[in-house]
């Protein structure tokens, strides 16, 4: 009796594709739990060549119209996309629940319909009545905006074939399921199947499609990572639940840069664009207040102002408090140590509180100089000079190190009306040229020089 050998098998992670010879509970590449599944080895002959349906063409003969962009008429959204939606592009918009993804895309859909385009909005999370109420509040009741509340993939594809829309919004991909695949909606196999079918339909018809996706607790897009590889653009919509400010940034963009950031503000009537967010991040007052210092941060390629506030008070505790909001606590502790050791500003026995205005998140080292000036100003109870902005990285030695894109930062400072700027000495000449003579630039070598120059005289 002949013994039939069992075909060799292996194991593969459904999230990232990592392979192993035996089953393990946790993927060795992406560290995801429960994603390693058994896959059989390929049997039979290799795939045979098929007939060519579309012959290859010289790259210079490919028409540019196949990559034409269509603006969404939401300027901040178009900024992040690189000018608009490309024909047949698949865009994944991810964000935490309640951050405003549905509100943003309903505004995008309404403006596209207002410009004469046929738009199909597929809602899998909310009923048609709920979406209609939001649209009425936002003023988005447009005749060309069609709404379908469906959760079955086959029905959604039928809607696409029947309506032949110019733009499709699917909210969200985790709620759509396919009857041909086992598993609950939102599972790995379901999300992969649904995403693949919708993206294939978008490519076949040339219809731009925006898919809404949720994020996990660690901030990554929920579902298999293969979805991020299938789509053309991955956007992240983020914001503090206690602040109306929302930021849209691209994590992946096959048609443009990922360095642009879009600013929005949630209001009672929906969502508004914020082309100039300086009013959200700066305190407008004629009175000089000790413990505050503005800076210009760089988020991608966009220069954004930020105001750092510090409060120093005598402590009655053996271990004084250190509280931060909007800044890295380790960075604040480092600047405190440099101020104490290199400048002689003693803060070891005081409670120190540091915060940013408007819920801004400041993480880059270029804000070190403004943080140090705010702390020194609060400790001496002397405001910084009026109209001053500070930009620079502080080293452990007390030196002020050069930073990138000084021209972009100083141009924004001049536009906002700042009259004085303290920058690293190594980039002072470039800063003066970028400001066009509107800002008096002072280059400093050390933090001690910056503190002496930045604070108002007693």
TrEMBL record:
HAMAP family: RadA_bact. It comes from the Bacteria. PANTHER family: DNA REPAIR PROTEIN RADA (PTHR32472), DNA REPAIR PROTEIN RADA-LIKE PROTEIN (PTHR32472:SF10). CDD domains: RadA_SMS_N. InterPro entries: AAA+_ATPase, DNA_repair_RadA, P-loop_NTPase, RecA_ATP-bd, Ribosomal_Su5_D2-typ_SF, Ribsml_uS5_D2-typ_fold_subgr, Rubredoxin_2. A motif (RadA KNRFG motif) lies at residues 252-256. DNA-dependent ATPase involved in processing of recombination intermediates, plays a role in repairing DNA breaks. Stimulates the branch migration of RecA-mediated strand transfer reactions, allowing the 3' invading strand to extend heteroduplex DNA faster. Binds ssDNA in the presence of ADP but not other nucleotides, has ATPase activity that is stimulated by ssDNA and various branched DNA structures, but inhibited by SSB. Does not have RecA's homology-searching function. Plays a role in repairing double-strand DNA breaks, probably involving stabilizing or processing branched DNA or blocked replication forks. ATP binds at residues 95-102. Signal peptide: none annotated. Pfam families: AAA_25, ChlI, Zn_ribbon_LapB. This is DNA repair protein RadA. Keywords: ATP-binding, DNA damage, DNA repair, DNA-binding, Hydrolase, Metal-binding, Nucleotide-binding, Stress response, Zinc, Zinc-finger. GO terms for molecular function: ATP binding; ATP-dependent DNA damage sensor activity; damaged DNA binding; hydrolase activity; zinc ion binding. Residues 66-215 form the RecA family profile domain. The middle region has homology to RecA with ATPase motifs including the RadA KNRFG motif, while the C-terminus is homologous to Lon protease. Belongs to the RecA family. RadA subfamily. One of its GO terms (cellular component) is cytosol. One of its GO terms (biological process) is recombinational repair. Residues 351-458 are annotated as: Lon-protease-like.
């Amino acid at each position: 009796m002949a013994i039939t050998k069992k075909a060799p098998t292996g194991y593969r992670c459904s999230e990232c594709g990592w392979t192993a010879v035996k089953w393990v509970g946790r993927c060795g590449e992406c560290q995801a739990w429960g994603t390693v599944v058994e896959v059989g080895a390929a049997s039979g002959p290799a795939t045979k060549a098929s007939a060519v349906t579309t012959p290859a063409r010289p790259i210079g003969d490919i028409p540019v119209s196949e990559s034409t962009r269509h603006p969404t008429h939401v300027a901040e959204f178009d900024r992040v996309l690189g000018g608009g939606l490309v024909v047949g592009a698949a865009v994944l918009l991810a964000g935490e629940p309640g951050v405003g993804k549905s509100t943003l895309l309903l505004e995008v859909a309404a403006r596209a319909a207002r410009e004469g385009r046929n738009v199909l909005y597929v809602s899998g999370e909310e009923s048609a009545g709920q979406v209609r109420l939001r649209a009425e509040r936002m003023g988005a009741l447009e005749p060309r905006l069609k709404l379908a509340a469906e959760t079955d993939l086959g029905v959604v594809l039928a809607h696409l074939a029947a309506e032949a829309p110019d733009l499709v919004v699917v909210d969200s991909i985790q709620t759509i399921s396919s009857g041909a695949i086992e598993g609950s909606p939102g599972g790995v196999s379901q999300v992969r199947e649904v995403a693949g079918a919708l993206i294939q339909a978008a490519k076949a018809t040339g219809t731009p499609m925006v898919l809404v996706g949720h994020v996990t607790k660690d901030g990554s897009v929920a579902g298999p990572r293969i979805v991020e590889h299938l789509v053309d653009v991955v956007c992240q919509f983020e914001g503090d639940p206690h602040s109306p400010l929302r930021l849209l940034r691209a994590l992946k963009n096959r048609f443009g840069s990922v360095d642009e950031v879009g600013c929005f503000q949630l209001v009672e009537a929906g969502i508004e664009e914020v082309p100039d967010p300086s009013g959200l991040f700066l305190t407008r007052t004629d009175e000089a207040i000790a413990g505050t210092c503005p800076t210009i941060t760089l988020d991608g390629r966009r220069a954004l102002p930020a105001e750092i506030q510090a409060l120093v008070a005598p402590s009655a505790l053996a271990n004084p408090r250190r509280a931060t909001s909007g800044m890295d606590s380790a960075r604040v502790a480092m600047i405190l140590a440099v101020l104490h050791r290199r400048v002689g500003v003693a803060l070891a026995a005081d409670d120190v509180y540091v915060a940013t205005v408007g819920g801004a998140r400041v993480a880059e080292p270029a804000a070190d100089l403004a943080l140090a000036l705010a702390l020194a100003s609060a400790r001496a109870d002397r405001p910084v000079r009026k109209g001053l902005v500070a930009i620079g990285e502080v080293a452990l030695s007390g030196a002020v190190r050069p930073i990138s894109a000084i021209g972009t930062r100083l141009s924004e400072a001049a536009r906002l009306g700042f009259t004085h700027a303290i920058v690293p000495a190594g980039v002072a000449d470039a800063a003066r040229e970028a400001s066009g003579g509107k800002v008096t630039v002072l280059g400093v070598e050390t933090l001690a020089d910056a503190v002496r120059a930045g604070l108002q005289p007693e």
